[in-house]
Design goal:
The chain is of the alpha/beta class. The protein has a single domain, classed as Nucleotidyltransferase, domain 5. The chain is built from 5 helices and 5 strands; from the N terminus they run βββαβααβαα. The chain has a 5-stranded mixed beta sheet. Helix 1 packs parallel to helix 3. The protein is globular and about 45 Å long.
Length: 157
């Protein structure tokens, strides 16, 4: 049986880096679109970029062929170029330091084994419809977090 083909577009960001963060993802299967988003109180841009991909892939209910598009070079290069070496080196970089965000890289590594994924990078904020949608979702998640926590909003002033 042929696997379903799903397109995923992700983005993540922070208000301050580190700071309150949000992530967004748009999933498309045929003519159907689904949006996902979330936030964390204290995080980094890179963690939010990774979380967007992890949450989107986790939302798939079966093994799929996936075209995942991100504006994060860190995410794309990490998963397509660096991860093999990190795993070979016991999750250490080429300079023998621990890989940053290892918890998320390991989750992502597990998820990519479940799907056939092609990774694509696009320039952020360049008018790409789905990337702009994912960015808006991540920004809205940050604003919801700040609105729900007056302490965080005061810290950002």
């Amino acid at each position: 049986m042929e696997k379903k083909f799903v397109e995923i577009f992700t983005d993540g960001g922070c208000s301050g880096n580190p700071g309150p963060g949000g992530w967004g993802a748009v999933l498309r299967y045929m003519e159907q679109e689904r949006s996902l988003s979330g936030h964390e109180i204290h995080t980094t841009n890179n963690r939010m970029e990774m979380t967007a991909a992890i949450e989107a892939l986790s939302a798939l209910q079966q093994s799929c062929r996936v075209k995942l598009t991100t504006d994060s070079s860190y995410l794309k290069d990490g998963i397509t170029k660096w991860i093999k070496g990190w795993k070979k080196n016991g999750w250490q970089t080429s300079t023998k330091t621990p890989v940053k965000n290892i918890d998320l890289w390991q989750k992502l590594d597990h998820l990519i084994g479940m799907h056939d994924i092609s990774w694509h990078w696009i320039k952020g904020h360049s008018g790409h419809r789905e990337n702009e949608m994912a960015d808006q979702l991540s920004q809205k998640a940050i604003q919801q977090l700040l609105a729900s926590s007056p302490q965080l909003a005061r810290k950002k002033r």
